[in-house]
Amino acid sequence: MNKENYFILQRTYIIALAVLVAWSTFAYYISEKIVRDQETYVKLINLSQKQCMLSQRTALYASYLYVTSSQKNRELLGGLLVSMKSDNQEIIGSIVSQNVKDFYTKQEGLEEQLETYIASLDTYMQRPSVIKLAVISAQSEELLPVLNQAVTMFQGENTLLVNKAKQMTFYIYIGTLLTLLVITWFLVRAMTTRKTEDEIG
Predict the structure, then answer these.
(1) Which CATH number do you get for residue 28?
(2) SS3 52
(3) What range defines the domain where residue 56 resides?
(4) What is the pLDDT of residue 2?
(5) Most CB atoms within 10 A, among 38, 76, 100, 112?
(6) Which parts of the chain register pLDDT below 50?
(7) Closest CA to 109 of 136, 91, 122
(8) What's the distance, CA 198 to chain centroid?
(9) Closest listed residue to residue 34, CA positions, set 96, 91, 90, 103
């Protein structure tokens, strides 16, 4: 093998190894990001499903409170209300996409509807009345399909994330395979060239 071929082969190996390191680093970064995003979406889906349940339970315990005036029911309703408030703040702070953020935060969006419902419950707990209870029941019924839509949106985005992860995994696989094929081709070429030179020599 002459000096020129040696340097070409050496440079090719260095480039190929650098590309393999780059693919490995990229694969690690993508894997970590996908895991983090998946954890976020699992949390968002669980919390939004919980909000659906809370919207129904708070309306139910509001009616219990009106009928019984029980301190226990008041405390249970208060606990559900606190959970609903904190979960809503956690959802707002964890939203990934602009589309869902707009769905929550735009005028008359889900966040505003939740705040209106929570304010109605706060007012009701101070002084229960049949009129306030009717308002809460109506708001709860209106809120449920919107909350279900939020769950659907989070699930849809999570599915897109999984599909994107599959595509990225395929691209990384193809890129790594092509890099290995290039290394193999140059190795075989170098061995063939050396064998030819030995035969001539």
Answers:
(1) 1.20.120.30
(2) helix
(3) 3-195
(4) 56
(5) 100
(6) none
(7) 91
(8) 60
(9) 96
Is there a domain that residue 201 lies in? no
Nearest to 73 by CA among 84, 57, 86, 87: 57
HSE-up of 142 (CA within 13 Å, CB side)? 14
SS3 content of the chain, % helix, strand, coil (to 5): 95, 0, 5
Q: Is residue 35 part of a domain?
A: yes
Contact 120, 135 (CB under 8 A): yes
Q: Residue 45 is which amino acid?
A: I
Residue 184 carries which side chain, given as an amino acid letter? T
Q: Tell me, what's the pLDDT at 16?
A: 73
Take residue 106 and report the two structure tokens written for it: 């735009």
Residue 200 lies in a domain: no
Q: Look up residue 149 and give its two tokens.
A: 């839509």
